[in-house]
Structure formats: structure tokens, C-alpha cells
Specification:
Largest interface: A-B, 30 and 30 residues
Largest sheet of chain A: 2 strands, antiparallel
Structural class of chain A: mainly alpha
Oligomer: heterodimer
Low-confidence stretches of chain A: none
Number of helices of chain B: 18
Helix content of chain B: 55-70%
Strand content of chain A: 5-15%
Radius of gyration of chain B: 22 Å
Distance between the termini of chain B: 62 Å
Mean pLDDT of chain A: 88
Structural class of chain B: mainly alpha
Shape of chain A: elongated
Number of helices of chain A: 2
Mean pLDDT of chain B: 84
Distance between the termini of chain A: 55 Å
Number of strands of chain B: 3
Strand order of the largest sheet of chain B: 1-3-2
Low-confidence stretches of chain B: 24-42
Radius of gyration of chain A: 20 Å
Chain lengths: 75, 455
């Protein structure tokens, strides 16, 4: 299922990752359709990242206040 | 784009501050033992200190994953300043100094009576070299290639021989175990005569190795000391390059460090584990384990060596398991061996953190002894009192472990961003390694909050 980058022979595990790789490492060689695919993939990734960061922020907040309260009760 | 980058930088800065506050709340309340043997009351229960440490590492991973701008991360690591200084000038001076120190240790070891920290050889080797000098290699830079007197033996050219490549650097791993075993459990620290013999033997083996295989192969593959200082030197803010001295951010050269194979990974894991074991061997808990085994007829030597080796196997296994796990968490066609090789350099700052936690207090308390060992009259038993280490130093020990892990998390994160085309993939790849790191932090903090045996 792996795909290989035609410019540097790097192997990626999915097509989407290959699109991201090409856009990041060979931006000057992208065709118009590849450029659009890259932008879409990047947009999709940005959405996932935003969702992840939101969750991460919630976890960090709970972690921080969890410890704060524990210290104020026990310390 | 510019404003987005600025926002990210602010977020990152905020994250770092936040992490510091989180770490600070742990530091302010926790006081474990110090190297000098004095102990203070623990104001927060040890389990809470330990859990806070785990929380800080987990939280810092989450925060570091906010920095996914590769260009920013790279530019941060590429910041450096060079100074046009070449090592050629200092090389002969350093080698003479190294040879003199080596001679002093061997000569005083054999000729001067005295025990423990009253003896110049013991002071120079354990306080001066193993504690203080090692700290200098990761805090400032690696000067060992200049000091190492055994490089000179390449003049004794007897024709080079091929180094058996299947040995890799495993001899150095064994050597490192040997040094730590000698330092933490054998009676060598108390017996200068034995110390002189071991140092002399190390010298002879080094001369033979350098002569037989050539300095580059021997010092890069088989010599535990050169390898140990070399890796710490990569972490340091000062390093030698072809154009002279380079000033850089600590750790910023680690993501580009390529280690050859699993043997080098094994060495990096050993660097971390031996320092942890060193701490463990000095706890009340470990003494009681040894005692318990002794009552059942197991010799102490076997228990100590067994603990060292089994612990190493467990941690090496955990690290390898984490790299295998990366392949399913962040689907990648890279083999797990390649992943282990790429991520292993992130262990260096953690090892340095443990070393600092374990030896900073010991070194500071030993400074007057070190001064006395080098002050006239030379070659005499030393009569000086160690410094009393201030209580806040125990906070510095916890900080050492936490900062080491924080830098390690950051380095692993930068490696992941470089290695994987997807940013989400890079974050996912860190789930397993960070879990191992949280566990290791907990272990490390548990060790330093343990009481030391009362002698």
C-alpha cells in the first residue's frame, strides 16, 4: 500500500502523506493539480490539528488544576 | 503567514512558561535527599512529587505539539554563532595536562596511603572527573578529545587491524557498565590502590586499542569514556566544527545526529540507565533488596550486577517496543530499527539531567577536597572538609531530571517533524515514546526522593 515519491524516492505509507511530502519538500516541482491537492491535504490536516490542540488544551488544563487542587488539599 | 508564526511563537513561549510554573509548583514543595547525606522533611508526599513530574512531562508533550511549524522549529535549531578558534593550539597543552592527571591518579593510587575522600586519587577520579568533568561536557562542551592522553599512542604505529564490525560498540556498553559498577557498588571508591590499578589497566587497554585499531575506530567504537563524553558534547551549547568553535542552543544539534545502528542505540540507552542505576544503588530501598538477597545466600556482587543488567534489558526493551509501536500509531513504512536510530539522540538530555541530579550536589560539596588535592603539598593525603550543601539544592536535583526530560521531549518532537511528512502523524508518533518517558520520569523522581541509607 506504500507510495514512492518520484522526486526523491522517499516512501510514504499513504497517498495523502505523499501529497504532503511533495508539497513540503519539492514545492517548486508541483504541477497545478498537485498544488491544489497539497493545499487541500494541508487544510484537512490543519482541521485535524485544531481538533487535536483543543483536546490537548483541555487535558493540560485538567492536569494543571488537578495538581493545583491536590497540592492545596494535601500540601 | 507572519502573524500566524508570531501567534505560534507566543503560544510556544506561553507553553514553556506554563510548564515552568507547573514544574515550579513541584519544586517549591518537594525536598528529597541531597548527595551530602543531609535530608529535609518532605512537605509534599513523595507520590505527589513523583506524579507531578509525570504530569509535567505529559503536559509538556501536549504543549510542544502546538509547535508544528517546521520552518520555525528548524530555524530555532539552526541559530548558531561561530568563533574562529581552532583546537590545534590547545591540543598539545590538553594532552600534556591529561597525561599529568592520569599519571597523578596512578602514582598516588599506588604510593599514598589513605582511604575514601581523604585520598587524592579518589578525589580526582570520582569528584573531579566522573562528576565535575562530565558535567562540563554537557553544560559547556566536550574537551575530552583534547585531554585524552591515549590518542598519542597512535604514534606507535604497528600497522592497523580491522575492527570486528559485528562487535559494534557493545564493548563500550560493557565498559560503561563496568565503570558504573566500580563507582557505585564495588569497594574501589574506598580503596585507592585498587583504583590506581583499574585506571592503569584502562590506560593500557586504551593504548593497545588505539595502537591496534587506530584512534578513530577505537575511540568511536570501543572506548566507553570517549563515546560517553562525545554524546554529552553534542548536547552542549559549545562544540567544535570545521570552522572553529560554535555557540548554539543546547541540544539543537541532536535532531541531526545520526547514529549508526542498534549498537549505538544500545549505548545511548546505557548512558541513561547507568546514571539512573547509580542513583538507585544509593537508596535505602536497594540496600534492603541486596540485604534480602544476601540472607538467601545470593552474593552482593551478583545482585548488583544482575540489577544493572536486568534494568538495562527492561529499559532497552521498553525503548525498542516504543519505536515498534510508532509504526502503528503513525503509519510509516520506516522500519522500527531506523526509528530507534533516529529517536535515540533524544535520550541524551535525559541522561544529562539524571547525571546532574545525581552528581551536582556531590561535586559542589567536594570542591574544597578537589582544591586541597591540587594545592601543595601535592601527593599527600587530603585533610579538608566537604562543603555542606544547601537545602535548596534538592530542588535543583528535581529540576535536573525534569529539564532533561523536557528537552528530550522537545528534541523527539523536532525529530518527528523532520522525519514524517504529516504533522498529525509526527504528533501521533510520540504517543508511545512519551508514555515511556513519563514512566521513566516517575522512576527517576521516585529514586531521588527515596531516603539514602544511614551509614
Amino acid at each position: 500500500m506504500t507510495v514512492t515519491c518520484p522526486y526523491c524516492n522517499r516512501i510514504c505509507s499513504t497517498k495523502r502523506l505523499l501529497v504532503l511530502h511533495k508539497g513540503h519538500d519539492h514545492p517548486e516541482r508541483l504541477t497545478e493539480s498537485e498544488r491544489i491537492a497539497y493545499e487541500n491535504a494541508r487544510e484537512q490536516e490543519a482541521t485535524n490539528l485544531r481538533r487535536y490542540r483543543l483536546k490537548a488544551l483541555v487535558v493540560v488544563t485538567f492536569l494543571y488544576f488537578g495538581f493545583l487542587f491536590t497540592y492545596s488539599i494535601i500540601g | 503567514m507572519e502573524s500566524r508564526t508570531t501567534i505560534r511563537r507566543r503560544l510556544l513561549l506561553g507553553g514553556i512558561l506554563f510548564g515552568a510554573v507547573l514544574a515550579g509548583s513541584g519544586l517549591a514543595t518537594a525536598h528529597g535527599g541531597t548527595a551530602g547525606g543531609t535530608r529535609n522533611a518532605v512537605t509534599a508526599p513523595p507520590w505527589l512529587v513523583v506524579a507531578t513530574g509525570g504530569g509535567v512531562i505529559g503536559g509538556s508533550f501536549l504543549l510542544s505539539s502546538f509547535a508544528t511549524d517546521r520552518t520555525f522549529v528548524q530555524s530555532l535549531h539552526e541559530r548558531s554563532w561561530s568563533l574562529p578558534v581552532t583546537s590545534a593550539v590547545y591540543q598539545p597543552v590538553g594532552t600534556v595536562l591529561g597525561a599529568l592527571l592520569f599519571g597523578t591518579v596512578v602514582a598516588t593510587g599506588f604510593l599514598i596511603s589513605g582511604r575514601g575522600t581523604g585520598h587524592p586519587a579518589v578525589i580526582i577520579v570520582w569528584i573531579g572527573w566522573w562528576s565535575g568533568y562530565t558535567m562540563s561536557t554537557y553544560l559547556f562542551g566536550n574537551s575530552w578529545p583534547m585531554l585524552n592522553p591515549f590518542r598519542l599512542s597512535e604514534w606507535l604505529d604497528t600497522g592497523r587491524h580491522e575492527y570486528p564490525s559485528r562487535l559494534g560498540c557493545w564493548p563500550a556498553v560493557l565498559g560503561l557498565f563496568g565503570i558504573v559498577w566500580l563507582e557505585s557498588v564495588s569497594p574501589i571508591a574506598e580503596t585507592p590502590h585498587l583504583l590506581g590499578t583499574v585506571v592503569l589497566a584502562y590506560g593500557l587497554v586504551s593504548v593497545a586499542g588505539v595502537t591496534w585499531f587506530g584512534p578513530d575506530t577505537w575511540l568511536e567504537k570501543a572506548d566507553p569514556v570517549s563515546k560517553f563524553f562525545h554524546y554529552y558534547g553534542v548536547l552542549a551549547p559549545v562544540g567544535w566544527t570545521d570552522s572553529g568553535l560554535e555557540l548554539r542552543l543546547p541540544g539543537s544539534r541532536l535532531p541531526e545526529l545520526r547514529v549508526d545502528g542498534l549498537d549505538e542505540v544500545g549505548f545511548l540507552v546505557a548512558m541513561l540507565w547507568v546514571t539512573t542505576f547509580d542513583g538507585l544503588a544509593h537508596t535505602q530501598f536497594w540496600s534492603s533488596v541486596v540485604e534480602f538477597a544476601a540472607e538467601r545466600g545470593l552474593p552482593t556482587v551478583v545482585v548488583q550486577a544482575g540489577g544493572l543488567l536486568i534494568g538495562y534489558a527492561v529499559f532497552y526493551g521498553a525503548f525498542r517496543a516504543a519505536t515498534v509501536r510508532i509504526r502503528s500509531d503513525a503509519p510509516t513504512p520506516l522500519p522500527s530499527v531506523e526509528l530507534a536510530r533516529r529517536f535515540a539522540p533524544s535520550l541524551v538530555p535525559i541522561a544529562a539531567g539524571y547525571h546532574f541530579a545525581h552528581f551536582a550536589g556531590y561535586f559542589i560539596s567536594g570542591v574544597p577536597l578537589l582544591g586541597a588535592a591540587f594545592a601543595p603539598p601535592l601527593f599527600m593525603p587530603v585533610a579538608a572538609d566537604p562543603l555542606t550543601v544547601p537545602a535548596w539544592l534538592s530542588g535543583l536535583r528535581i529540576a535536573g531530571i525534569l529539564v532533561g526530560h523536557l528537552v528530550g521531549v522537545w528534541i523527539a518532537h523536532s525529530i518527528a517533524l523532520e522525519l514524517f511528512p504529516g504533522r498529525m502523524q509526527a504528533i501521533r508518533s510520540q504517543y508511545a515514546p512519551v508514555t515511556v518517558m513519563v514512566g521513566y520520569t516517575i522512576l527517576g523522581l521516585w529514586i531521588i526522593t527515596q531516603p539514602t541509607p544511614t551509614n
